[in-house]
């Protein structure tokens, strides 16, 4: 059981780390701000999400796990809002007035 | 072990790279972005040094709130950037400064490389007396029991800094509202965040204060989060800063230091000295001090970021 | 497991460090904000991994504080950035 | 080479960098930024002292750690006051410079403090 959980942790965190890699590559290589924003949000959502998922079996009891999940939810909320705000500011002909 | 050292070395190089860029970049706004990143990386460094209390403080105050303060100033001073570029000192001065700064760094580095053996420490003494305070977190014990005098004075410094900021207001606006009035946002995203985040932030702030007795955390860290949530509400246009002349506001600002001082003075009567706690009552008294202190620090930090009064009441 | 978690923290940190090149290059302030946002998320991920690897649960609280403060700082950034500097069409004479 | 030494050297370098920025930059806001950078380096040097004093089952000596926390808060208050001063200077004169020969409308109003 413990081994299976450990394997789950390793797989989920590795995939999460891959999304951070993808996000960084996108941020560096994509041609304009909106596509870069697209790459960033993937790293934000999935990268952190999978890392949290992978850490859940290692968490200290239910309170620890709940704390991890709430950190992810807060990051989601903040990330989504900031991405919206950046996109509005970047988009040509956006709500300037 | 080598993996940990490699990560530490990488982190140190990263901190230095961001710091160099913050100093070297032309635009002030970009420099502030660099500074906030620098603060975030420093929080990671503190975690690597196993100083979790400091990491919390750095993440909250050093990076977050200081960053927002500098950011607002950079946005206002944007018109002056052009003129300032013409005042850059000559290459000779830069060169001499670089040499002298390098000498200072080299001297400090030599101190780091020549450690005293055994290293001086008060950790044993701090832990030995921990049971008398009833606390589990030795850093909180230093701040509020062993060296409470320093912490009391620090609160006074915060209030004095706020008085200094307020005294920069033009006479006509004395007692008015600080900072610009942010228009109520038309689009939903920011308002949504500003409605959803503060309740969570208040819970987290109280949690930080509560666990501070036994785990890393405490009055500063909790109050910084409370202050940040208040500023967020103001920025979203959901609320406005109160006029600084209000009596209730001033009471909130001084409540923490006053309770602290009252407990300290009562030490003469119920214990043997100023700021001494009677045996067995240290923890309740420390919590009695910390709760109003958290509110006062939160209000002070928020108003320090808001700046001097700018609008009539 | 401890080693793996530590290595993962190092990897995530290295990735967001590469992302910091965007802060360097810009060109617009929006790109810098995005790089800072990525650094915030990556920093949170690295902290959570470090907390688990070093078995100091209190580090999770640092991540919690960081999430809240990063959200707050990002909003302040976007609101105080000038429109010209955000879309990269900043006029050279400063207007 | 331990983690404490690595970050100690990093702190020493940060102090030098901050000092350089403090002297070379002419804009007051950049000076404030550089000063905060320098402060971070000083705190880090303190942190190394704390880490080396690890004993009694603690990761570091709590006394320097408490000093650093106090220092961070005091540095913030000083920064807030400095920023307010620069902004007031800008309001009053339309410029933000420390040069005494500042022209155009740089008239100093009643300073009887």
Which whole number gives the mean pLDDT of chain C? 78
- Helices and strands of chain D, in order, run as HHH
CATH C-level of chain D: Mainly Alpha
Q: Level of helix content of chain D? A: 55-70%
Largest sheet entry of chain C? none
Oligomer: heterotetramer
Question: How many independent structural domains of chain C?
Answer: 1
Poorly predicted sequence stretches spanning 5 or more consecutive residues of chain C: 89-95
Average of per-residue pLDDT values of chain D? 81
Q: Count the DSSP helices of chain C.
A: 5
Second rung of CATH, namely the architecture of chain D = Orthogonal Bundle
Note the gap between the termini of chain C: 57 Å
Shape of chain C: flat
Order of helices and strands of chain C: HHHHH
Radius of gyration of chain D: 19 Å
CATH fold name of chain D? Helix Hairpins
- Terminal Cα separation of chain D, in Å? 53 Å
Number of domains of chain D: 1
Question: Summary?
Answer:
Chain B is an all-alpha fold. Chain B contains 13 helices and two strands; from the N terminus they run αααααααααβααααβ.
Keywords for this structure?
heterotetramer, A: 97 residues, mainly alpha, 3 helices, 84% helix, elongated, C: 95 residues, 5 helices, disordered C terminus
What does this structure look like?
The complex is a heterotetramer of chains A (97), B (313), C (95) and D (113). Chain A has one domain (2-90). Chain A is 84% helix and 0% strand. Chain A has helices at residues 2-29, 33-55, 61-90. Chain A is elongated, with a radius of gyration of 16 Å. Chain A starts with a helix and ends in a 7-residue tail after the last helix. Chain B has 2 domains: 1-76; 129-313, no CATH class. Chain B has 313 residues and is an all-alpha fold. The mean pLDDT of chain B is 83. Helix content of chain B is 72%, strand content 2%. Chain B has 13 helices and 2 strands, in the order H-H-H-H-H-H-H-H-H-E-H-H-H-H-E. Chain C has one domain (2-86). Helix content of chain C is 81%, strand content 0%. The radius of gyration of chain C is 16 Å and the shape is flat. In chain C, helix 3 (29-54) runs antiparallel to helix 4. Chain C has helices at residues 2-19, 21-25, 29-54, 58-80, 83-87. Chains in contact: A-B, A-C, B-C, B-D.
């Amino acid at each position: 059981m413990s081994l299976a959980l450990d394997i789950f942790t390793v797989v989920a965190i590795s995939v999460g780390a891959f999304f951070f890699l993808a996000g960084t590559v996108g941020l560096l290589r994509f041609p304009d701000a909106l596509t870069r924003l697209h790459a960033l949000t993937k790293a934000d959502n999935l990268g952190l999400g999978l890392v949290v998922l992978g850490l859940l079996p290692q968490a200290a009891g239910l309170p620890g796990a709940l704390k991890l999940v709430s950190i992810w939810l807060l990051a989601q909320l903040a990330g989504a809002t900031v991405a919206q705000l950046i996109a509005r500011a970047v988009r040509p002909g956006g709500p300037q007035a | 072990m080598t993996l940990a050292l490699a990560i530490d070395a990488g982190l140190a190089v990263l901190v230095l790279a961001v710091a160099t860029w913050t100093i070297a970049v032309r635009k002030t706004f970009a420099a502030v972005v660099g500074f906030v990143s620098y603060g975030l990386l420093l929080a990671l460094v503190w975690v690597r040094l196993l100083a979790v209390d400091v990491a919390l403080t750095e993440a909250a105050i050093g990076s977050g709130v200081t960053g927002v303060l500098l950011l607002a100033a950079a946005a206002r001073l944007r018109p002056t950037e052009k003129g300032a570029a013409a005042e850059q000192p000559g290459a000779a001065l830069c060169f001499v400064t670089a040499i002298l700064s390098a000498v200072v760094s080299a001297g400090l580095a030599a101190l780091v490389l020549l450690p005293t053996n055994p290293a001086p420490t008060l950790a044993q003494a701090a832990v030995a007396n921990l049971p008398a305070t009833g606390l589990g977190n030795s850093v909180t014990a230093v701040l509020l029991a062993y060296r409470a005098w320093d912490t009391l004075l620090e609160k006074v410094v915060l209030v004095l800094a706020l008085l200094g900021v307020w005294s920069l207001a033009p006479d006509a606006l004395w007692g008015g509202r600080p900072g610009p009035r942010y228009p109520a946002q038309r689009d939903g995203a920011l308002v949504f965040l500003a409605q959803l985040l503060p309740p969570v932030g208040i819970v987290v702030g109280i949690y930080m204060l509560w666990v501070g007795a036994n785990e890393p955390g405490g009055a500063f860290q909790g109050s910084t989060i409370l202050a940040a949530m208040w500023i967020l509400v103001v920025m979203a246009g959901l609320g406005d800063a109160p006029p600084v002349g209000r009596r209730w506001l001033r009471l909130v600002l001084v409540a923490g230091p006053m309770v602290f001082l009252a407990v300290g003075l009562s030490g003469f009567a119920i214990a043997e000295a100023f700021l001494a706690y009677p045996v067995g009552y240290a923890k309740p008294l420390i919590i009695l001090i910390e709760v109003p202190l958290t509110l006062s620090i939160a209000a002070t930090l928020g108003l320090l970021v808001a700046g001097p009064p700018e609008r009539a009441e | 497991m401890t080693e793996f978690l530590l290595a993962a923290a190092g990897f995530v940190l290295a990735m967001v460090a590469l992302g910091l090149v965007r802060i360097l290059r810009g060109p617009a302030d929006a790109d810098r904000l995005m790089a800072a946002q990525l650094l915030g998320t990556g920093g949170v991920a690295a902290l959570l991994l470090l907390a688990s690897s070093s078995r100091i649960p209190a580090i999770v609280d640092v991540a919690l504080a960081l999430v809240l403060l990063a959200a707050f700082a990002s909003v302040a950034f976007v609101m105080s950035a000038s429109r010209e500097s955000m879309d990269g069409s900043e006029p050279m004479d400063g207007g | 080479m331990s983690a404490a030494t690595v970050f100690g050297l990093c702190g020493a370098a940060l102090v030098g960098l901050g000092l350089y920025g403090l002297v070379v930059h002419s804009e007051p806001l950049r000076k404030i930024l550089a000063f905060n950078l320098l402060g971070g380096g000083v705190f880090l040097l303190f942190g190394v002292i704390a880490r080396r004093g690890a004993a009694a089952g603690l990761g570091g000596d709590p006394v320097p750690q408490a000093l650093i926390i106090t220092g961070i808060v005091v540095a913030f208050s000083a920064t807030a006051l400095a920023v307010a001063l620069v902004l007031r200077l800008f309001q009053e004169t339309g410029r933000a410079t420390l040069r005494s020969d500042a022209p155009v409308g740089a008239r100093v109003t009643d300073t009887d403090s």
